[in-house]
Amino acid sequence: MKAEDDQISLQELLVKTSYQTQTTKHTDKLCENPLAFGSGFIVKYQNEQFFVTADHTLHLDDYKDDINERTGNEYVVSIFTNYSPPDNFLSTVLTPLGGFYFMEQFNLEKPEEADELVDITLCKMKAINLQYPFLCDDVQFGKQQKLIIPIDCFNEAKTDKNYFVFGQIKTRIEGIRVEREKTVKECLRYISKAGDYLLFNTPEIITDMEEWEGLSGSPVISEDGDCVGVLCSVNENSKSIWVMPSAKVKMLLEIAFQQEKLEALNDKE
To answer: Which of helix, strand or coil describes residue 119?
Structure first.
């Protein structure tokens, strides 16, 4: 992948394309009481910017084991900008998002069952979402600007490549400060397609879920800098991690783009 026509390292790409999020209730107007943390990334599609993440970071209730269907309950997902206002340099600005698109699909083999949830969601980044810069919070890259993944960097997963995930884990809010740990999951290997998902394996068995909590929605990046999908879940006491392929993201991007274009035309009439 290239940024502003300059080749960048894989490490820089990982750090600069992953955005941390938090999830709060709609009634929490100041987004002060996070219920969960996640990740996501911004994609440039048809000259528009879209934020992509795992759907279960937006619809917390829908993915509970005893539900696994649409409940109608939607939460607020906000991005940590890592920008500190001049009058409060210890805090970081949050950018709440809205207008998310998401999917379900009908199971032809089990027509009597509820539609299956598809664990990706995205929204168009509007002007109000871009009033503050999205910055790194990293020793090596300081407060440099985050990057946007162009759609032509989407690619299919291959079994002969290594894949990587970067993000923030063990996040906690202490007063106005955000405490968190950075992590890079290295040498992930693509195994096979399984239904809607791609199955990847980690080098070692996953024994501590805290080492992965907060990474849902992260882009899965190849050693060549391609984005092959969205991290959705991992299985404890196994090597299995589940990724929604970039082709599914493209499908939802096109739906969102066409819907946004239609709404813009209707607004002009």
So the answer is: strand
Residue 145 carries which DSSP code?
B
Name, in order, each residue with C-beta under 8 angstroms of 125's C-beta and a sequence gap of 6 or more.
Answer: 42, 48, 49, 50, 51, 97
Residues 6+ apart with CB under 8 A from 7: none
Q: What is the pTM of this model?
A: 0.93
Helix H or strand E segment including 249: helix 246-268
pLDDT in tens, 194-253: 989 999 999 999 999 999 999 999 999 999 999 999 999 999 999 999 999 999 999 999
Q: What is the mean pLDDT of residues 171-196?
A: 89
pLDDT (0 to 100) of residue 159 = 97
Question: Strand pairing of 219-222 and 197-201?
Answer: unpaired
What pairing do the DSSP bridges indicate for beta strands 116-124 and 177-194? unpaired
What pLDDT shows up at residue 111?
Answer: 55
Q: How far apart are CA 41 and CA 51, in angstroms?
A: 6
Residue with tokens 């939460």: 75
As its CATH architecture, domain 9-268 has: Beta Barrel (2.40)
CB-hemisphere CA count at 13 Å for 223? 10
Evaluated on CA atoms 259, 264, 266, 267, the torsion sign reads: positive
3-state secondary structure of 69: coil
Are 8 and 2 in contact, with CB atoms under 8 Å apart?
A: yes
CA–CA distance, 41 with 57 (Å, rounded to integer): 13
CB-based burial label for 256 (10 Å; 0-12, 13-18, 19+): buried
Confidence of residue 113 (pLDDT cuts 50, 70, 90): low
Residues 147-171, mean pLDDT to the nearest whole number: 97
